[in-house]
Amino acid sequence: MFSVRNLAPSKFKLLRYLSLLSECRNHAQSILLPISIPYSKPHLQSFPKFSLQPSINFFRTFSSQPGGSLLKQNLPLSREGNYDEGTSLSLSVCPGCGVYMQDSSPKRPGYFIKPSEKDPNYRLHAHLEHGAQEPEFSNSVKMGLVVEPEKLNAADVNLTRKPEKPVVCARCHSLRHYGQVKDPTVENLLPDFDFDHTVGRKLASTSGTRSVVLMVVDAADFDGSFPRKVAKLVSKTIDDNSAAWKQGKSGNVPRVVLVVTKIDLIPSSLSPTRFEHWIRQRAREDGINKITSLHMVSSLRDWGLKNLVDDIVELAGPRGNVWAVGAQNAGKSTLINSLGKYVGGKMSHLTEAPVPGTTLGIVRVEGVLPTQAKLFDTPGLLHPYQITTRLTREEQKLVHISKELKPRTYRIKAGQSIHIAGLMRLDIEEMSSDTIYVTVWASPYLPLHMGKVENACKMFEDHFGRQLQPPMGVKRVQELGKWVRKEFNVSGNSWESSSVDIAAAGLGWFAIGLKGDAVLGVWTYEGVDVVARNCLIPYRSNTFEVAGFTVSKIVSQSDQSLNKSHQRKAKASKAPSSFVELSPLISDGGIS
User: Which PANTHER family match (predicted)?
Assistant: First the structure.
């Protein structure tokens, strides 16, 4: 036997280490762990009495990962969320975006960090003071408590605690608090949202609960955000199930509620009657043949929410399913959050962000509809013909329309052209009259340019990615694709108001005011949808833009801040400050 007193300090440490190993081995054998892995250490061979027999790798049981995380590594990469009762009971779904949650890998979708649990009484005695210093009315009385805090039981303490916030995935947390996604490449692991497989088959079913399709469309990008594929599928289902119902068979006919959001972006001078007539006409042309009801709302200003809620409750009935469907960034989640806030229901806040694709999976929203009716928020449909799907996050911010649209009007002649940043160009090739009025309706952060058609190629080579942004940088011009032309023959009967719109999906539109006929050439990147339609806003600006570059709002702000910065430097160096030379605001990499 070794005598501890006679051992050197280094040998005593080793003996202590071996004792701990022996205790861990005995503990592991007592709980009968099934895993058996040989364990050996070369430096233990000189101590035969304390050598360990083949044992388990007990360090595996002390994993730093939360319990059950090993099982979560095999979560399906899916966008089906929790619309299915069976799936929602077995898998945890993020209440903000609908993705399956896991805590094993930050490089996979749905990663989250479970917050540490706090003692419910950790703040209970923080407000107590000594008797001599206690005021006439104690803090507990001011809080409305008759019993002193130290005498409260567990049930009473829970009444004074604030409701816990639901745990969301790391992506939703980043979007809510920082307005951006740390690693956008993680989302690429998810498959595209298959509307036909998930929602489509439920709508096509002739039996089951009543279905209401909440078709959400962006007022500022109506044709680009209109879900044409969904409209055709729902229209076909309505026709088929209506025919079956007339024959006495089971026929569950879906109800379509067309919701046009963000109407606060449309100028208030536009007549609501004219706007509604225009919406119904465009909806028919885009593929929906029967609309149960139409609502024009603003989630930001709570316009039209009362009528929409009443209509949805009546159509859904006590047990119906309501599906919110729309393109990416059309405003579905913001609309549902506004509805929940309006009705005062206890619902989980859906993640909102001014970037496309915020919702990743189907989210069943509780607390908005009464009784057993269910409301589902679905992932935004990807429309590849929208130009925003090709842009980076920073470029999307410039294209995004966040305030009421303001017109920018040009009076031009044949042989002249207008650029909207480096994304779209309008050429006046031929016309029967001398003058034509072109009004640009787009984000104020996009610069414009008016010049001659003969100089358009030089503009593309010298200024795209520089003065005309987005795209940000010359390399991005090539990444966006081929620059192609599309021809339109238009006509009008008045110069006083616009007659025709030439709209690009995800960007904006040109409103054309003319008397007579004209041939227009529209240039943009291949695959971007460009349509001619009846004019939405017939009015134009009272003042006209001049030839050359029209500085965008963001460049104008940068100009002012840069000028002030140079003036401060000039004063600091005691240099003449009557004239300050400005450096270029636009570089190859973006706006400096």
Answer: GENETIC INTERACTOR OF PROHIBITINS 3, MITOCHONDRIAL
